[in-house]
Structure formats: structure tokens, C-alpha cells
Amino acid sequence: MLDIYRNRVLRYSFYLIFCFILVQTHNAIGQVNFPNDYMGQWKGNLDIYSGNRLIKKVNMSLFIDSTVTDHTYIYNMVYQGAGEEPDIRNYLLVVVDRELGKFKIDEQNSVELPMQLFGRKLVSSFVVEGSLVYFLYTLMEDKIMVEVISGPYEQATFTGEQMGIPQVGIINNQIFQTGVLVRQ
């Protein structure tokens, strides 16, 4: 039984090392100059799904621009569904550590959301009004892919923890949003 456990640990260790090398190689190849190369106006549509069902389409725009300081940028987002008033969000993007790809969105109301750059993927996760939210932006040369995953922030249910298998927590996702923003 101990040999089976050692083999699994060894196999997982090699897998993790391989993934680390792959990510580091991808990061070296896929480096982006964010936010400088992404300043300007971006527009597109965001499709919102509940399960497999499209429940809403909204127009989305993102505007990134410099300010008088080299570590703070204008980061404005606007969402607008058909027949609705625009939902305008005037935020600031703050560079925390450019070398490590650490940023934060300052909502200018005491809320600051961390963002981390992984190669070409910008990721932010947070909890708001009982929902766990993941924002993922894939930065391409002429477009930005936006993905948002959310679900209730609740106690995970667990499975596994038998025959040397680690316990795995399960969290439900309920809403998925996806869209592509194009430089204007």
C-alpha cells in the first residue's frame, strides 16, 4: 500500500514539475506588456449563460489609458443590455509589481480587487454579495477574450479521501459569461 502511495506522489510530482516548466516556457514566449500595449478603447458583446442556456447578451466596452503617474491607469468598463441604461464603472488599474505581474483594480470606493498576470492571462477572483467570481482576460494582439465564472460562495462538499486519494472540495458554478473585445 505504501508503494502505491509513493508511486502516486512521484507521478503527481513529475506532473507538477512538467506543468511548472510548461507554464514558465509559455510565460517566457507569451510575455505581454500590460497595460501599455492594451491602452485604448475595446468593444464587444458579452454572452451570459446559466447552465447551457443563453440568458442575456450585453454590449461591453473597456477603456484603458495612462494617468499622470506611471503606476496608475484609467480602467473604465461599460455594460449595456438591450433597452437598459449603461452600467458605467470608472475604475483605476494600479501596478503593484510589474515584474511579478501583480495589479489591482481600485474601484475608488474602498474596494480594491487583486489581478494577476499569467503569461497572456489576466486573472482576478473575489467574493461579492454571496457569489464567488472569477474574471479571466486573455490578452491577444488585436482582441481581449473575456470570461467570467460565478456561483454561490458556500461551504464546499467533499469527495475522495479513500485508498490514499486526497479529499477534493466541490464548488458549484452557475453563471458563465464570455465575449471578445476588439480594439476600436
Q: How is this structure best described in words?
A:
With 184 residues, this protein is an alpha+beta fold. It folds into 2 domains: 1-30; 33-183, Beta Barrel (Lipocalin). It is 15% helix and 55% strand. It has one helix spanning 2-29; strands at 40-50, 53-66, 72-81, 87-97, 102-106, 112-118, 121-128, 131-139, 143-152, 157-160, 167-170, 175-183. It has a 10-stranded antiparallel barrel with strand order 1-2-3-4-5-6-7-8-9-12. Strand 4 (87-97) and strand 5 (102-106) form a beta hairpin. The chain starts with a helix and ends with a strand. The model is unreliable at 1-22 (pLDDT under 50).
Summarize, please.
The protein has 184 residues and is of the alpha+beta class.
Approximately how much beta-strand content do the residues carry?
A: over 45%
Name the CATH superfamily classification of the largest domain: Calycin beta-barrel core domain
Query: Class by helix and strand content?
Result: alpha+beta
Strand order of the largest sheet: 1-2-3-4-5-6-7-8-9-12
What is the second-level CATH architecture of the largest domain?
Beta Barrel
Instruction: Determine the number of helices (DSSP H or I, runs of at least 4 residues).
Output: 1
Helix content: 10-25%
CATH class type of the largest domain: Mainly Beta
- The H-and-E topology, N to C, reads as HEEEEEEEEEEEE
Low-confidence stretches: 1-22
| Gyration radius from CA atoms, angstroms | 20 Å
| Mean model confidence by pLDDT | 86
Biggest sheet record: 10 strands, antiparallel, barrel
Q: Number of DSSP strands?
A: 12
Distance between the termini: 61 Å
